[in-house]
């Protein structure tokens, strides 16, 4: 049995606060925007979700690593996308007979730096009150002053366009060619479980790189458009807004998730803003205003759509509302077959309350 490394590590926040702990993953230094996810399961899905690109994740669940990793089945993309990880207790020993490795080895191979032994309750309360900020973690430089100087080089998430860095470089197809429904997917950092939710419902998807001009998507003559999740600031993506505007002109069904929801909103004239703290977890209550039902949802976003601007747009209707803070969770166009949600209906490993949205999209296409 491999013994836990006891090497010291430091976490320094942008405002100069220092948290001390022990090293995990690769020995090194990494900086990014610090955010917390309250989900109790699905850590590998979080680490490989392209929407987390450039971010340092605090897992608030107290034990991480204990069920190891499963390379094939539990990755949302080809590899780890987070910049670094913070947790309370990190286990190098895993106990799941299906696992194909330990999280420690997985992070080492992916060059991911991390820190454990941190009181994540204290840290999260601190960030919750002060708001989102950048941070740096190191297990090689233990001088906070040097780290703070390094931290100044970490870019602000606001204004960053990151989809081009994580999306596919080549067009590819998923699903059966015999499928009746053809969906053009604009890959802004798409999660695998979104694609499988589409193909499971009989869609044949062609996945296009983020900056593909609309004419190329249209040339395939799809029956509908899907605008994916992804990292970065939606306001820094005029190219995607333009693609969605042109897709709306076709009057074909369009569905957007998370970043895709923010892009549909921008294409409909509604702006986005950076939240004091994002929503990241598996138990965010959302009310479907059409059915009156509550859904427990999986979420991961740091930007949101400006609710106060919606009243000026008669062609846009709010369909979903967050019951914790009343932020906008879903919209639909009244003049087009287009809708989107801020949260994650694919939600792997769950909850699955919102999967009906994929059914509705395919139904809209078939109609
Ligand atoms: N999961 C996502 O698509 C995230 C969207 C966007 N990057 C945000 O943080 O709000």
TrEMBL record:
EC code(s) of this entry: 6.3.5.5
Keyword Nucleotide-binding: yes
Record Gene3D superfamilies: 3.40.50.880, Carbamoyl-phosphate synthase small subunit, N-terminal domain (3.50.30.20)
UniProt superkingdom: Bacteria
GO molecular function per UniProt: ATP binding; carbamoyl-phosphate synthase (glutamine-hydrolyzing) activity; glutaminase activity
PROSITE patterns in UniProt: GATASE_TYPE_1 (PS51273)
Active site per database record: 258, 344, 346
Pathway(s): Pyrimidine metabolism; UMP biosynthesis via de novo pathway; (S)-dihydroorotate from bicarbonate: step 1/3; Amino-acid biosynthesis; L-arginine biosynthesis; carbamoyl phosphate from bicarbonate: step 1/1
Residue sites binding L-glutamine per the record: 51, 230, 232, 259, 262, 300, 302-303
Transmembrane segments: none
Reaction(s) catalysed by this chain's protein: hydrogencarbonate + L-glutamine + 2 ATP + H2O = carbamoyl phosphate + L-glutamate + 2 ADP + phosphate + 2 H(+); L-glutamine + H2O = L-glutamate + NH4(+)
Pfam families: CPSase_sm_chain, GATase
Residue stretches making up the Carbamoyl-phosphate synthase small subunit N-terminal domain: 7-138
Keyword vocabulary terms for this entry: Amino-acid biosynthesis, Arginine biosynthesis, ATP-binding, Glutamine amidotransferase, Ligase, Nucleotide-binding, Pyrimidine biosynthesis
One GO BP annotation of this record: glutamine metabolic process
Cited function: Small subunit of the glutamine-dependent carbamoyl phosphate synthetase (CPSase). CPSase catalyzes the formation of carbamoyl phosphate from the ammonia moiety of glutamine, carbonate, and phosphate donated by ATP, constituting the first step of 2 biosynthetic pathways, one leading to arginine and/or urea and the other to pyrimidine nucleotides. The small subunit (glutamine amidotransferase) binds and cleaves glutamine to supply the large subunit with the substrate ammonia.
PANTHER family registered for this protein in UniProt: CARBAMOYL-PHOSPHATE SYNTHASE SMALL CHAIN, MULTIFUNCTIONAL TRYPTOPHAN BIOSYNTHESIS PROTEIN-RELATED
HAMAP family: CPSase_S_chain
Protein family according to the UniProt entry: Belongs to the CarA family.
Protein name per its UniProtKB record: Carbamoyl phosphate synthase small chain
């Amino acid at each position: 049995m491999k013994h836990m490394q006891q090497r010291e590590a430091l976490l320094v926040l942008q405002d100069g606060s220092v948290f001390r702990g022990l090293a995990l993953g690769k020995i090194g230094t990494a900086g990014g925007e610090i955010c917390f996810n309250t989900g109790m399961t699905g850590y590998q899905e979080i680490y490989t979700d392209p929407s987390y690109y450039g971010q340092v994740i605090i897992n608030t669940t107290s034990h991480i690593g204990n069920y190891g990793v499963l390379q094939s089945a539990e990755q949302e993309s080809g590899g780890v996308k987070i910049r670094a990880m913070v947790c309370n207790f990190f286990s190098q020993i895993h106990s799941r007979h299906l696992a194909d490795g330990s999280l420690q080895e997985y992070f080492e191979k992916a060059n991911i730096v991390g820190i454990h032994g941190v009181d994540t309750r204290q840290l999260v309360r601190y960030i919750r009150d002060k708001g989102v900020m950048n941070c740096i973690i190191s297990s090689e430089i233990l001088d906070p002053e040097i780290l703070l100087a390094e931290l100044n080089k970490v870019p602000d998430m606001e204004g960053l366009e990151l989809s081009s860095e994580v999306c596919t470089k080549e067009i590819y197809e998923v699903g059966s060619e015999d499928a009746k429904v053809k969906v053009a997917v604009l890959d802004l950092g798409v999660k695998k479980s979104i694609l499988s939710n589409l193909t499971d419902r009989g869609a044949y998807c062609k996945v296009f790189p983020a900056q593909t001009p609309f004419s190329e998507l249209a040339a395939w003559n799809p029956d509908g458009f899907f605008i994916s999740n992804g990292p970065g600031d939606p306001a820094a993506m005029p190219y995607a807004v333009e693609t969605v505007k042109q897709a709306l002109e076709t009057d074909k069904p369009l569905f957007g998730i998370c970043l895709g929801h923010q892009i549909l909103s921008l294409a409909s004239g509604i702006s986005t803003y950076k939240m004091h703290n994002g929503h990241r977890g598996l138990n965010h209550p959302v009310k479907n205003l059409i059915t009156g039902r509550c859904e427990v949802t999986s979420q991961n976003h740091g930007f949101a759509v400006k609710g106060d601007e919606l009243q000026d747009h008669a062609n846009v209707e709010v369909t979903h509302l967050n019951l914790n803070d009343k932020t906008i969770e879903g919209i639909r166009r009244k003049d087009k077959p287009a809708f989107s949600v801020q949260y994650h209906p694919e939600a792997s490993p769950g909850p699955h309350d919102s999967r009906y949205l994929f059914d509705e999209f395919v139904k809209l296409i078939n109609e």
